[in-house]
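HUMAN: Please help interpret these tokens:
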Amino acid sequence: MKVKIGGYPKYFYPKYFYWLDRLFGWNPKQMISVRIDPYDTWSMDHTLAPIILPMLVQLKDTNHGAPNVDAADVPKELRATKKQLDAYGKNGDVDPKHFERWNWIMDEMIWTFEQKCRDDWTMDYYGPYIEGEDGKFLSGRFEWTDREGKQAHQLRMTNGFKLFGKYFEQLWD
């Protein structure tokens, strides 16, 4: 995969762009070049995760606003009460936990992509190999030691991917 994304064009003479486009077909746009190799789509989730993760981290660090977040997507302690929503809604303001909810969503998405970039996260839930007297492994595979923990980990990752899809159009600064 090779991706090259140029900067946004600078508009110095906006009134002339219409004529330049009409006469010469010149229209300043952001230059984007993407080449996808066949092996990039073999495991596309693993190809995209290392690209998405640093973008999410940078967005969280430089964030200047927060979109509305559905109450069902966050823990109960981050949800606004009806009284708070009514009081703040009258003035056009946001409730006190508005930005905390978005930060929690961002943290969940970042954690999810960190786990996706770790190919071996499932190893946290396996037991050790069993060695014989001669130093060779007796067991040809790992044994599960914490099935519930692995399942909870996977459910949290699945929720993070769901949040990423749901709030994809809100990933702006």
Observations:
- The radius of gyration is 24 Å.
- The longest strand covers residues 2-5.
